[in-house]
Amino acid sequence: MRFFLFAISVLTFSANGISLQQMIDEAGAQKKEILSIPQNVYRLNDQLKLRNLKNFTLDGNGSTLLMTNYSPAMRIERCENLTLRNFKIDYDPLPHTQGTVLAVDRKNKLTRIRLHQGYPVPSRQTGLSMYPFSSQTRRFKEGVNEHFNSRLIPLGTPNEFNLWTHEYPDGIEPGDFVALRFGKYPCFWIRLCHNLTVDSVTVHAASTLVFVARSNTGVHRYKNVRILPGKTLPAGATEPRLLSAGADGINYENSPARIELENCEFGFLGDDSMNIHGTALPAYLRVNERTIRIIAPEDYRFLLKPGMTMRLMKPGNFTIFAELPIAEIRWLNQKAPEETKKLFPRTMSIPPCREMYEITVQDPLPEIAPGTILDFREMNGLSFSVKKCYFHDQRAYGLRMMCSNGIIESNRFERIKGSAIVFGGEYAYWREAGHVENLTIRNNVIDRTANYPANVSFAAIATIGRPEKRQIGVSKNGSRNIRIEENVISNSPFGAIQLFGVRNVSVKGNLLVDIGTTKIFPRAATLGFQKLTPIALGYSVTECDIRDNQIRQTQKEEKK
Predict the structure, then answer these.
(1) What is the pTM for the complete model shown?
(2) What are the phi and psi torsion angles at 471 (to 5°)?
(3) Based on the number of CB atoms within 10 Å of its own CB, is 223 exposed (0-12), middle (13-18) or buried (19 or more)?
(4) Is 256 in contact with 378 (CB distance < 8 Å)?
């Protein structure tokens, strides 16, 4: 029995009897510039592979690609000047499920749930992510944490389970809804591509991340892209779908590229809308006065170029103490010793490789203490722009930017549990680089974001980044040349703008409405915030120009 009910026919093969993959392969072999497929719903039992295509457009003509397993919908590798446009992606069955909370046993960390009729039973019972929703609003429940690596315990009643969580299920009540993520794979896997355009593509479901991009170059444009829960229900279902994707909408790593986002809408994601970052690496060995040996989880040979900048950072708080142009990069054709995993367990254990390279710089290296961290500024992304987009109803952050030379302009952010916009490296925990330079955040409308203090940041727009240990303090030379101007921020309970570890920053002409103040949280105190005010400055903020901002409380708020 088919899981989804569609009003039009569902095809495994096109009208001429060949599969969609065969159509793509034949068009590539014939060096066609465009493949325009007949409009229909295509059931795919394997991912579409787009490899080594050049100057090629795949036009879906409004078709739906319906994945029948939990693999990526598309694997895109070594393409140049590729355009994807005019299609939708959905999954049958869904890679996540949902249900209603029947009871909560906080003492034993158990939440009893009944799956909604028609929604799938998870394909595995461990390693689940649980997202609480309000049954009244059908949105992520404000002020209530999610639970990861949870375990499902079947009960005697069909479709009823106990969900065991590592933390106490505080704030979850009978009658709430929950969504459960159990898939493992992204929707799009993009690697080693030069110049990509994704135009008028809608994704209605994804196991984890939607667009995952690694080791890319050129300009990558996303226009009119939508990530939203599908309105088509599973067979027999009556409850609308809660979740769109289980993790980030767009995630770029180790890609010296320009990323552009325009006129897009992302909602009901299990993590960030967009995350651009590089990888923080250990300074493994100082070979001589100009050469350092590094260990990298990606193939840097075709990405890292002479003239790019290597930044060396102090252990613990990641203060930059040297910025050195690269003269030469050499691949050593050998794997790093197993014992080096302990240097960076979160980064170095990631496949596909732990290759060793020697980097020669133009200027003499300083002394390098054990535990020194480095990144390559351009590997975090060359530049970016995010304009005229709508981000709403999300579990984590709107934009999590670790790329320099960017503009975030004329966007709308609503009902995001984390900050709308955070910038700066997450060196300490996720090992995501890096410090940001030359960023403008202008003319955005932000409402009801950063609504619970379990996040690392507490304001609608905020610096992000933690020291390895609380007593170390934050970077004294991190992000710089930041402009936060003419934004409208409202209903942010813990603050509108919070900054630490930044230099040369302008906060001008912003309108802040109904910004709550509260007592300091221990985590915020370690970053230097003595009080959470609408505009708050923590440790190591220098050359800061704050003026012409308006702070208002509405009459309704003042009466409370």
Answers:
(1) 0.94
(2) -80, -10
(3) middle
(4) yes
